[in-house]
Amino acid sequence: MARTAEITRKTSETDITVRLDIDGDGGVSVSTGVPFFDHMLDALGRHMRISLGVEATGDLAVDAHHTVEDVGICMGSALAQALGEKRGIRRFGSAVVPMDEALVLCAVDISGRGQLHYAVELPIEIIGTFDTTLAKEFLIAFASNAGITLHVYQFSGENAHHIIEAVFKSVARALYEAVSIDPRVAEVPSTKGTL
Question: What's the CATH number for 4-179?
């Protein structure tokens, strides 16, 4: 069964379409109007090894907040839809990713209980047009709408670009593991029988 989804969300602030194929080839096409965010979403798709398409327009004249948050909502919803009943998935995943001086750990549980636990100390600055505080806002929206428990912890790092890139890549690698199919498991990986 294809593990794919397409989500469209249109509000007075944003117009977003996300296409996602969990078993895709890692091909990514992203256009949000926020170049650094595009770079991070490209890294997320490629290192998770999914096919990902994101087309977003938003009220960037205000700032990038609504666009980044709403993309998180759409991507989380798309992942939840594509996972379906979650039969046979590994469910848990973790990764520790270095990016120069930055080192970040992500652990994920596809639990059905969307939440983010985030211990990352970032300099508050603008990278291009991306406010560094928006990295957390994206992950909150993504985890909540995907129904995943997401832990992200920073061990080291000073450069905001490096830290955020390590965050996105660690999330991608942890999710790659968690959504992968375990050939020894046919059922939903939960004592409850559902996630």
Answer: 3.30.230.40
